């Protein structure tokens, strides 16, 4: 394998002036398999542009008010490769992320079972330390069905896989644009834009390709969007609506009693 791959892009969504953006960019520049990296923002600033220039990265600015769906679509559409990872500015990608992505997707395609998207295990990153917290433990347990590769293309299994909560950490996901098409993020939700998108994609032919190895450190901090949604109760409202897409409302509300335990990840912030 050469040390360059031109079929993949890390599209970094930069928002305001995150103190963690450079650490994210460093992790992408340190990949053992070099792929394309671009920086996209709807909140342009000298800080973001200077970091993009420092690492010699293309810098794209979206006009209009910041909106998670529009921002993710802009980053997704700005990547002109078959595979694209919407990289979150606060997170750290381990050095072999791109290398394992290529190995696993090549293997899947050679089997005649192209993936809709690829995703991996992760650890929470708190105060500079990767940890297996409550949230990541629950999600890892929920991902068990897709460790059985023969199930990963079943529409029934893909939908059931999502029915007990969102088991996928969205920064770990790489989309196959040949399968997912343009204007991918059409969900009206904010916190659950990813879960709702995965549900949409569960009806597409193809695999949810899971690599059961930690490849991303997901940073948990008070300024994170996840923490903000929990503080103002928006997450609970959206989670209840999502569960109701799979279950009658009384069952959805019952599941929520237990699902809220995962919020403890952010409750200590």
Structure commentary:
By secondary structure, this protein is of the alpha/beta class. The chain has a single domain (4-267), classed as Spore Coat Polysaccharide Biosynthesis Protein SpsA, Chain A (Alpha-Beta Complex), CATH 3.90.550.10. Helices cover 39% and strands 23% of the residues. The chain is globular.
Provide tags for this entry.
single chain, 269 residues, alpha/beta, Spore Coat Polysaccharide Biosynthesis Protein SpsA, Chain A, nine-stranded mixed beta sheet, 12 helices, 9 strands, 23% strand
Average pLDDT, rounded to a whole number, is: 92
CATH class: Alpha Beta
* Strand fraction: 15-25%
Characterize the biggest β-sheet.
Answer: 9 strands, mixed
For the record, the CATH architecture stands as Alpha-Beta Complex
CATH topology: Spore Coat Polysaccharide Biosynthesis Protein SpsA, Chain A
Domain count? 1
Low-confidence stretches: none
Gist?
The chain is of the alpha/beta class. It has helices at residues 21-29, 46-54, 68-78, 97-110, 134-142, 155-161, 177-180, 193-201, 225-231, 234-243, 249-259, 264-267; strands at 4-14, 34-41, 59-61, 83-88, 92-93, 115-126, 129-131, 174-176, 207-219. It is built from 12 helices and 9 strands.
